[in-house]
């Protein structure tokens, strides 16, 4: 039986850990050649590649610190070279914009610097736009673009106001490009994760875990694989009739 994404290629930005890693693993499990992007941690990205290959999948890593000058060109030079090596051509079927920058947890809005605002918007909004723009020369008709947004675009979290603003911009990218690319049958959608245990230090603190768990209707934190499953679904032909949508993957955190 042919896998749903057999013969497809997929780039997942920020896939050295967390939701990005789970997404790359999920896409590879469904047959795609996964391109694992990292910003700084090459070793972690290689661990993702190793996990995919151990699972019987195919993958290679590309590195570029998104938000810095020339990063998109650097990424695509590696991407195209890797695609040629692995497939003999430079076709990218699936783009997942997952890489993101945030302000430190608990920061007051008054404490955010102009430099932090520039960095967050550069990574979370400008880079996805430029990546999508550049990818359009490689994505065939019927391709998939999936943007990882956030539940904080739908509920107030003052310490993450700049992050929420940048993810709101990403949702606008989804909306407008969905209309623009519809004639090519390329779908563009957003996925909105809630609090998801990505392995960072705050999720190892029992008190913090309990407090964060209360936001979900299921009274627990999300797992990266649960968000990744939504992304993988959107990447398949089963989701061909969904575009310009924002899919809630928060475990009911937005129910009020």
From TrEMBL:
<keyword id="KW-0560">Oxidoreductase</keyword>
<comment type="similarity">
    <text>Belongs to the short-chain dehydrogenases/reductases (SDR) family.</text>
</comment>
<dbReference type="InterPro" id="IPR020904">
    <property type="entry name" value="Sc_DH/Rdtase_CS"/>
</dbReference>
<dbReference type="Pfam" id="PF13561">
    <property type="entry name" value="adh_short_C2"/>
</dbReference>
<dbReference type="InterPro" id="IPR036291">
    <property type="entry name" value="NAD(P)-bd_dom_sf"/>
</dbReference>
<protein>
    <submittedName>
        <fullName>SDR family NAD(P)-dependent oxidoreductase</fullName>
        <ecNumber>1.1.1.-</ecNumber>
    </submittedName>
</protein>
<dbReference type="InterPro" id="IPR002347">
    <property type="entry name" value="SDR_fam"/>
</dbReference>
<dbReference type="GO" id="GO:0016491">
    <property type="term" value="F:oxidoreductase activity"/>
</dbReference>
């Amino acid at each position: 039986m042919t896998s749903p994404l057999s013969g497809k290629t997929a780039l997942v930005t920020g896939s050295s850990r967390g939701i990005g890693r789970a997404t790359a693993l999920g896409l590879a499990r469904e047959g795609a050649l996964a391109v694992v992007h990292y910003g700084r941690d090459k070793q972690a990205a290689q661990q993702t590649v190793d996990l995919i290959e151990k699972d019987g999948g195919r993958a290679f890593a590309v590195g570029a610190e998104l938000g810095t000058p020339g990063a998109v060109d650097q990424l695509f030079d590696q991407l195209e070279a890797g695609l040629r090596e692995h497939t003999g051509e430079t076709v990218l079927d699936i783009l997942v914009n997952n890489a993101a920058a945030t302000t430190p947890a608990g920061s007051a809005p008054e404490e955010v610097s102009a430099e932090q605002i520039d960095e967050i918007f550069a990574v979370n909004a400008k880079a996805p736009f430029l990546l999508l723009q550049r990818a359009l020369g490689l994505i065939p008709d019927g391709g998939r673009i999936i943007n990882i947004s956030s539940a904080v675009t739908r509920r107030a979290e003052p310490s993450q106001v700049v992050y929420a603003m940048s993810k709101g911009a990403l949702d606008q990218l989804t909306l407008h490009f969905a209309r623009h690319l519809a004639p090519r049958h390329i779908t563009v959608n957003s996925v909105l994760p809630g609090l998801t245990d990505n392995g960072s230090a705050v999720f190892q603190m029992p008190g913090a875990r309990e407090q964060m768990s209360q936001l979900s209707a299921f009274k627990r934190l999300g797992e990266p694989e649960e968000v990744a499953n939504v992304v993988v679904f959107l990447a398949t032909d089963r989701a061909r009739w969904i575009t310009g949508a924002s899919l809630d993957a928060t475990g009911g955190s937005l129910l009020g």
